[in-house]
């Protein structure tokens, strides 16, 4: 009888955890990804910026590599590749402003705020030396802005399925309102052969889309328009690579070729059978491709 009294609250706690995991899978996946960063021997730090506290992860040794996630993600976006990369590079992986644990926590989220917070992090952590910036999706847009506006801080940039050009409306909603709409969005971002995303995850995508960072950025479309780079990408003088998942149907290979044509000496390397977030969808192939790009000493165009 006493055992039953002891086990009952344990069983209730387990049941509650399972229910939470079912209805909030994105939160659980976020926690798991940050645990993975710790297992990769990265440590959590904070920096004070004009927008408030910036959370970031640091670890590894070698040349500094700043990894920037996409809109709606957080530092854990890089969890599956952090351990391998930290063997060769000193990693800085922030929760970009307005994402993860970083301020601002509410209100409109402007790209200028995200850029300014990233500049502060580089200035505090670079030791006065330019860093290599690898950005995925919106993070690639930030990388381009850094290279164009703060070239003294940047050694080179790698744009991973993203950049600072406006994208074509392909009927893919980044703020889906239903499970079916979320399904179409997710499938456009991934290779058709990749595992299908479970329905409860799709439902959580719909729930978080209403108030998450992407929705907050959409509150000020004029700010986004001010930061598009169709007329200024040619001013980027640092070495630039595009590392592209070929299966991305949001920012397609056509988008990548337009970026590369506008940036002097840019080159494209592709990852077959992989989509918009290759560091998560195909981490092993992504790491091999990224290391190959970073350690390639000769500038060339593989288009």
Summarize the structure in words.
This protein is globular. The protein has a single domain, classed as Rossmann fold, CATH 3.40.50.1820. The chain has 303 residues and is an alpha/beta fold. The C terminus is likely disordered. The chain has an eight-stranded mixed beta sheet with strand order 1-2-4-3-5-6-7-8, with helices on both faces. The chain is built from twelve helices and eight strands.
Low-confidence parts, pLDDT < 50 over ≥5 residues? 8-20, 298-303
Distance between the termini: 72 Å
Q: What about the largest sheet?
A: 8 strands, mixed
What class would the helix/strand composition place it in?
A: alpha/beta
Mean pLDDT: 91
Strand line-up of the largest beta sheet: 1-2-4-3-5-6-7-8
Task: Give the CATH level 1 class.
Answer: Alpha Beta
Q: State the helicity in percent bands.
A: 40-55%
The CATH architecture would be: 3-Layer(aba) Sandwich
CATH superfamily: Alpha/Beta hydrolase fold, catalytic domain
What's the total count of β strands? 8
Question: How many DSSP H or I helices?
Answer: 12
Domain module count: 1
Q: Which sequence of SSEs, written as H and E, runs from N to C?
A: HHEEEHEHEHEHHHHEHEHH
The proportion of residues in beta strands is 15-25%
Identify the overall geometry: globular
- Give the C-alpha Rg: 20 Å
CATH topology category name:
Rossmann fold
List keywords for this structure.
12 helices, 303 residues, Rossmann fold, globular, 8 strands, alpha/beta, 44% helix, 8-stranded mixed sheet
């Amino acid at each position: 009888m006493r055992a039953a009294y002891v086990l009952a609250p344990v069983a209730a706690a387990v049941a509650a955890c399972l229910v939470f995991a079912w209805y909030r899978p994105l939160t659980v996946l976020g926690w798991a990804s940050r645990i993975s960063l710790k297992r990769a021997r990265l440590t959590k730090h904070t920096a004070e910026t004009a927008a408030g506290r910036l959370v970031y992860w640091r670890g590894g040794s070698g040349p500094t590599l700043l990894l920037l996630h996409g809109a709606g993600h957080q530092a854990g976006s890089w969890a599956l590749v952090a351990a391998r990369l930290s063997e060769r590079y000193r990693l800085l992986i922030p929760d970009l402003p307005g994402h993860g644990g970083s301020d601002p926590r509410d209100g409109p989220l402007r790209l200028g705020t995200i850029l300014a917070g990233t500049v502060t992090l580089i200035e505090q952590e670079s030791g006065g030396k330019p860093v290599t910036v690898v950005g995925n999706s919106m993070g690639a847009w930030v990388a381009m802005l850094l290279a164009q506006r703060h070239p003294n801080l940047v050694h080179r940039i790698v744009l991973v399925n993203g950049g600072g050009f406006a994208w074509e409306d392909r009927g893919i909603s980044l703020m889906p309102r239903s499970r079916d709409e979320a399904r179409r969005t997710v499938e456009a971002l991934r290779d058709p052969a990749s595992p299908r995303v479970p329905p409860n995850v799709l439902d959580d995508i719909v729930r978080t889309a209403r108030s998450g960072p992407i929705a907050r950025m959409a509150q000020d479309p004029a700010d986004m328009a001010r930061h598009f780079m169709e007329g200024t990408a040619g001013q980027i003088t640092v070495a630039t690579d595009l590392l592209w998942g070929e299966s991305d149907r949001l920012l397609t290979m056509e988008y990548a070729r337009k970026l590369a044509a506008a940036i002097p000496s840019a080159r494209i390397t592709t990852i077959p059978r992989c989509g918009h977030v290759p560091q998560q969808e195909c981490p092993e192939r992504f790491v091999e491709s990224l290391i190959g790009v970073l350690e390639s000493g000769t500038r060339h165009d593989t288009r």
